[in-house]
Amino acid sequence: MALLSPLLPTFSSLRPNLSQKLHRTLLPKKKSSLFLTRCAGNGAGKVGSATVEEKLEGKKEEAIPLESEGKLPPESRDSNGAAVKAVIPTFNDPRWIGGTWDLKQFEKDGKTDWDAVIDAEVRRRKWLEDNPEASNNDEPVIFDTSIIPWWSWVKRFHLPEAELLNGRAAMIGFFMAYFVDSLTGIGLVDQMGNFFCKTLVLIAVAGVLLIRKNEDIDALKKLIEETTFYDKQWQATWQEDETPSVSNK
Amino acid sequence: MASLSSPTTAATRRQDSPIRPFVGLRRSPSNNCIPTSRNAVPSRHHLQIRAAKSSPRLPGRPLRVAVVGGGPAGGAAAETLAKGGVETILIERKLDNCKPCGGAIPLCMVEEFGLPLDLIDRRVTKMKMISPSNVAVDIGRTLKPHEYIGMVRREILDAYLRDRAAEAGAQLINGLFLQLDLPESGEGPYRLHYNLYNKGTSSVASERQTVEVDAVVGADGANSRVAKSIGSGDYDYAIAFQAMRIPEEKMKYYEERAEMYVGDDVSPDFYGWVFPKCDHVAVGTGTVTHKGEIKRFQAATRLRARDKIEGGKIIRVEAHPIPEHPRPRRVLGRVALVGDAAGYVTKCSGEGIYFAAKSGRMCAEAIVEGSENGNRMINESDLRKYLKKFDQMYWPTYKVLDVLQKVFYRSNSAREAFVEMCADEYVQKMTFDSYLYKKVVPGNPLDDLKLAVNTIGSLVRANALRKEMNKITL
User: Is the minimum CB–CB distance between B460 and chain A shorter than 8 Å?
Assistant: First the structure.
């Protein structure tokens, strides 16, 4: 449990792509204030660790207490009557205040470190996906991803992918131009004036954009079928009608 | 193009229920359509469909129509038929049936069907949408003071509509519909077999009765027997599971508020809800693709709402099927399906009461018109007119909701984007307008463009976060 305190200051400089082992210990950053207010004074760190161990595979063993422990008081579990897990470690993070990220705590060199905000939100969502929590009215979550400026998203997500796709397109383009030239003798400039070649360029660009992984081919086929599936279900009752007196939809 | 990554996640998630190629009733199906039913039904090629105007006048008696099922669809149909001069019998097996149902009706239903306002237990004017990561958004700010979503108890609503039908002249029969015999010849009568429940006796003492009618309106719900009799084919359905709770002082919070929880934990393709009823709340969830895990989803819904329903007790647990799409065959000969039996439940929101009542009424209107107030025999083309009218009127609504479901219920990231979008006032206004009045009203094109940009932005951001989430392991 003492592991966590030294790790806290290093959190903001950590990148998600780094070693995954490191991330396990960074677990407990999640939803804090929701349960901070409810379980004030519940210093049941020991109990927390014991139940956490039995509940989770061990990934979260170090996860338990941060500063003030946010943990469910036992009685609320039983009265539920639902098949809820015994103890749910809650999301705790000192920078998560009042249902949103406190941007002041993300400052680096006087400016907000948006990448760290994105990382923090990713972690929070991941935590909640694995450990869904009750939504609380006292501390409603009001974080909206649109407060993170567009250029930060572009820089982090769009640009690397754009580089990748442009690289693929350039490689395909170069070799196709070479190939066509070797077959037909038409140079690059003349190829651009040819309708067939222009069509090939369009297909290549569309292909590079749409098919980024092997699975995308199947996914696209499914998507196309999905778009018309519902329409077909509705029109089924008309399709078996053979008299011309009723018009189809 | 980040949104394209969602099909892959959806594809992996939907591996257990891949999209089957669509089979109507024509091709020999490899899945769930009932092939033998086509043989049982008289071949349609030989039926001659003539226009109603040339149909023979009925000899000295009005048209006789049986409405099977006394829910909103049956009640509305029976009332309209009776008012139109058609001799109507309404067969309902359980007159005090407490249907496990959300019970939400739009404003236009109150107006169109002239429902008295004391039918409505609660008026919901605030809805809270809660995302998988518990981002909570309140919608309803744009509602005008006279606008609300009405919450009714089904047994009250159904009884009211049935009584109105009886007052208009329909004959209400408390009985269980058993079987429908199709006519031997083109103009012959349909024979219905049913168990009549004698008042005051147990259902054991029921007598089997038969009645002959000219046309049948099947309004007997998702497990429609009338639909089976005409070989309508199957449909996919969701299971909705509800457990009612009564937390005492917490009811104040739900006074005018309903909640919707989205997330994979709560339902992979639908949502979990907390709807206020007269003196308790209904906490439920539904799913199409993972029906076996419905109890787990229900537990997850209770967990998410735990703080707000703490201290409550479960008083009733119930489940019911919700059709996902219309049956392949909704009309055959002089039998038509309406309401849940036909499969008129919207996607995304799972709304069915209004469409059931409306379709019942439309079908009845088509019968009344085609028979010239009960004087002539009708035939299939009259019933198809009802289908055409209904499809044309509500197709945009269904399609839009289908698209919304496909886009926003795909994955957790899409749901996060969905909840984020709901915070936008324009979205709220459009959503409520189209829900309350059932009209897809085109808004300001500039606002629409802004909305489109915001939607794409939300989806892209949510998917980008999703990709990052996949990279880390906690």
Answer: yes
Q: What is the DSSP string of B180-237?
A: EEPPSSTTPPEEEEEEEEPTTS-TTSEEEEEEEESEEEE---TT-HHHHHTT-----E
The reply to whether residue B304 touches residue A243, judged by beta carbons under 8 angstroms, is no
DSSP readout, B139-161?
E-TT--TT--EEEE-HHHHHHHH
Residue of B nearest to A243 (CA): B49
Interface residue A24 vs chain B (CB under 8 A): yes
Residue B9's CB is within 10 A of a number of other CB atoms, namely 20
* Whole-number Å distance between alpha carbons of A172 and A166: 10
Rounded to the nearest integer, the mean pLDDT of chain B is 82
pLDDT of residue A86: 57
pLDDT tens, B435-469? 888 877 777 889 889 989 989 988 888 888 888 88
Q: Is B381 on the interface with A (CB under 8 A)?
A: yes
Partners of B104 in the β-ladder: B151
State whether residue B282 is helix, strand or coil.
Answer: strand
Whole-Å CA distances, B27 to A70, A75, A246, B435: 59, 58, 22, 37
Q: What is the pTM of this model?
A: 0.74
Q: How many CB pairs under 8 A join A and B?
A: 223
What is the predicted ipTM? Answer: 0.70
Contacts of B26 in chain A (CB under 8 A): 239-240
Q: Distance between CA B160 and CA B166 in Å, rounded?
A: 10
Model confidence at B275, pLDDT cuts 50, 70, 90, reads confident
Task: Check if B231 contacts A (Cβ < 8 Å).
Answer: no
Q: Do B467 and A237 touch (CB under 8 A)?
A: no
Whether chain A has a CB inside 8 Å of the CB on B264: the answer is yes
Classify each residue of B250-259 as buried b or exposed e, where b means 16 or more C-beta atoms within 10 Å of its C-beta: bbebbebbbb
| Three-state secondary-structure class, residue A26 | coil
Residue A20 CA to residue B210 CA, distance in Å, equals: 72
